[in-house]
Description:
Elements: H1 3-13, E1 29-37, E2 42-53, E3 59-67, E4 70-81, E5 84-96, E6 102-109, E7 114-117, E8 124-126, H2 138-148, E9 153-160, E10 163-179, E11 182-191, E12 200-206, E13 213-219, E14 225-235, E15 238-239
Antiparallel strand pairs: 1-2, 1-14, 2-3, 3-4, 4-5, 5-6, 6-7, 7-8, 9-10, 10-11, 11-12, 12-13, 13-14, 14-15
Amino acid sequence: MNTxxxxxLISSLLFGISFTSQASELVPHKASYTAKIKKGISIExxxxxxxxxxxxxxxxxxFNVKSFIADIDESTLLSWHDNQxxxxxxxxxxxxxxxxxxxxxxxxxxxxxxxxxxxxxKGWAITNIxxxxxxxxxxxxxxxxDLQSGKQExxxxxxxxxxxxxxxxxxxxxxKINTAFGxxxxxxxxxxxxKAKKRxxxxxxxxxxxxxxxxxxxxxxxxxxxxxxxxxxxxEGKNITFN
Length: 243
C-alpha cells in the first residue's frame, strides 16, 4: 500500500470526537493526532479535527492534515436534530506531491431526499435516501454521539461513490492504554467487517471524556500496520486533563 493511500485512510478512519454535557447537545472541540507506520515510514505533520458552531446555528466539522507527502482538507456542514447529525454539504480535497489532486463533494437535499455529487467528471446522484443518511465525515461524529448515549452497536448508511455503504461498529469492552496524557481508561470499539477481507480496525475512546478518540490501530490484509495517537485536545477552547 503506498504512503499517499495510507494518508487517505487516516482521513476516513480517524473517527469523530464528540463532547456533550447532555446527549442532546454538541459542544465545540478540537483535537490533534500523530500517525506512524509499522514498517518505518513516517508521516510528518499533524492531523487536526475540529467541531465549531457557525453564526447561522449550523455546525462545521473539519479534518485537516498537513504533511510533506500530501495535504488533506475535509469538512461537512451539518445540523443537529433529535440526536441525529443532518449533513448538508460535504467537501474533500487531497493535494499530493506524487499524485493528482482529488476532489469530492456531496450535496444533501432533504426536501427531495437526494445526495448528489455535482462534480462533472465523477458526478452521481442517489435518490430516496433514508432520513439518517450521512457522509464520510459526519458519520464519525454520529458514532461519538451514539456512544455518548450508551449504544453498544452502531450501523450507519453513508453516501459514497454513488452508493449507500454500511459502516458497522461494536463496543468490545474497556481497557487502560498509554497515551501522551498518561495511562487512561478507555472504551474499545471495533469496526465489523467480513472475515474474508482480513482488515482490522480498532479504536480506543476516552471513558472520562466520553468518546474522545485516543488511539486507532489498523492492520491491512498484507499484515502492514499503522497507528494514530492523540497528542492534544480541548473543549470550548480549554485544554483537557485526565484524573
